[in-house]
Task: inverse folding
């Protein structure tokens, strides 16, 4: 007497593997999209936090942190200023923010210009998420009027400033 074999046949295993490969092919692109949405959500939160900190700074000192009218940023093209007290927004840390925000793609990019950049003459200011939002059209609240590939917060006088 022979006993029936238990287990899967080669055909059954190949079928299962091909179904799993098909599902992975469908899911991977959607997971990549959700990562870019998450990074854009971080940028939105960063811009809101900095806007509130700048308003508090201005209420106390009567002017915005001044860069002498020059663009300062976290990227090499804008001085690699950093995130501490002498960072790209001078004087905002540690009194008004724990640390200046870092663009979520800054650490993983070789782009010399991508990231947050700030300019102020003391009266007006503009903070840009310069060339970094992955879907610039997704946030009409922060769409920069002078550059559609960036998001910004700014005073009316700095509306058209661009690096």
Result:
């Amino acid at each position: 007497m022979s006993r029936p074999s238990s287990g899967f046949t080669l055909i059954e295993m190949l079928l299962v593997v091909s179904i799993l490969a098909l599902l992975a092919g469908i899911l991977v692109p959607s997971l990549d999209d959700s990562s870019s949405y998450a990074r854009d959500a971080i940028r939105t939160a960063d811009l809101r936090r900095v806007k509130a900190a700048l308003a508090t700074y201005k209420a106390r000192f009567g002017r915005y942190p001044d860069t002498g009218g020059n663009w300062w940023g976290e990227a090499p093209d804008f001085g690699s200023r950093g995130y501490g007290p002498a960072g790209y927004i001078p004087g905002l840390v540690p009194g008004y923010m724990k640390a200046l925000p870092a663009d979520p793609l800054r650490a993983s990019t070789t782009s010399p210009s991508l990231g947050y950049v700030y300019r102020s003459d003391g009266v007006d200011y503009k903070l840009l998420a310069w060339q970094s939002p992955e879907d610039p059209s997704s946030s009409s609240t922060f769409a920069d009027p002078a550059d559609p590939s960036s998001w910004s917060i700014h005073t009316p006088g700095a509306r058209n400033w661009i690096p």
Observations:
- Residues 35-158 form one domain.
- The chain has one domain: 35-158.
